[in-house]
Amino acid sequence: MKLFFGSALLAGVLLAATGALAQTATPAKVADTSKGKALVDAKGMVLYTFDRDAAGKSNCNGQCAQNWPPLIAAAGASASGDWTIVTRDDGSKQWAYKGKPLYLWVKDTKPGEVTGDGVNNVWHIATP
């Protein structure tokens, strides 16, 4: 019985600590690119913003979202500071920075690439 109680207590402490970390972690970090500082995902892939998005609303769906995959927020993710979470048309959640939804570009194949910057004059690297 003591072992079970101790294990349950330890599991509870670990779960609480993990939850606290998940809530305080930001979905992106800052990295240097050939075009200056940019927000990148956990794999180092550059994130982009779309001029046709409304504040807090993604307007990139369907084929657009296949070419520009949204930076999806995991269930239970919580935002703070400049980070917010927007609900997409399909009901999924997407990270936004300073109100601008964030995306990846399928043609960027290596961390730090910025080939999506300036596409159709409406896509730009997300800057801190």
UniProtKB/TrEMBL annotation:
InterPro entries (alphabetical): Lipoprotein_repeat (IPR005297), UCP029720 (IPR014558)
Signal peptide per UniProt: 1-22
The keyword Signal is annotated on this UniProt entry: yes
Keyword Transferase: no
Swiss-Prot/TrEMBL GO biological process terms: alkane catabolic process
Record's keyword terms, sorted: Lipoprotein, Signal
Protein name per UniProt: Predicted lipoprotein with conserved Yx(FWY)xxD motif
